[in-house]
């Protein structure tokens, strides 16, 4: 079951790309194009819901092995809360539960009877499959936003194959992020670490729109380096409606639960 956790977290595992931006001057024409593309990203990020609840169906493969799982996601952007629960697809038994409230972060693994209590600043590298997690990217993507690497320098790239497509390249000392637009709307993101050349691709295939806000209907995440390919379909999407969100305190924990505080 943990392989599916790796599949879900992959886009956030390699994006802790801190460091100064690469300073390269832009021409006046490039500045305008970059500004237009960044405005499109800002508009999408502005139109994300304040609250959301949805079901997930997850299908994926790692090194030739196929996986299938179900899940539930909910968040309240203003309260800084995010809940993610993953279930066995057949038996519907939860095997991973994530709760974020402000900077507090809890991960509960029912099958292992293990509860990790930490914060977004104190997450130990390796707590998910030996890889570190950029929690800001996780929150951005799960809230429907286009995640952006920190301290970036932006420049535009031409796509000679398809005139309808434009490419926006963001770069800092450690990473590249390429946001691909079709008819002015982002539909793909490519992250590349400069040193390791590791690549993560994210495809935003469909959107659900309601009352001027939008959220994904389908995401596809690919990592050739990790031999992983996962697709997430969101259903029963409810946006900007009152939510009653649980925390780890609402879980019925076994007496012999292993509590790890970081």
Written description of the protein model:
The protein is mainly beta and 262 residues long. The chain has a single domain (2-242), classed as outer membrane lipoprotein receptor (LolB), chain A (Clam), CATH 2.50.20.10. It contains three helices and 14 strands. The chain has helices at 2-13, 28-46, 135-142; strands at 51-62, 65-76, 81-88, 94-101, 104-109, 114-119, 153-157, 165-171, 175-182, 185-193, 199-210, 213-223, 228-239, 258-261. The chain has a 14-stranded mixed beta sheet, covered by helices on one side. The model is unreliable at 1-7, 9-15, 19-23 and 125-133 (pLDDT under 50).
Could you name the key traits of this structure?
262 residues; mainly beta; outer membrane lipoprotein receptor (LolB), chain A; 14-stranded mixed β-sheet
Could you outline the blueprint of secondary structure elements for this entry?
Blueprint: H1 2-13, H2 28-46, E1 51-62, E2 65-76, E3 81-88, E4 94-101, E5 104-109, E6 114-119, H3 135-142, E7 153-157, E8 165-171, E9 175-182, E10 185-193, E11 199-210, E12 213-223, E13 228-239, E14 258-261
Parallel strand pairs: 6-14
Antiparallel strand pairs: 1-2, 1-13, 2-3, 3-4, 4-5, 5-6, 7-8, 8-9, 9-10, 10-11, 11-12, 12-13
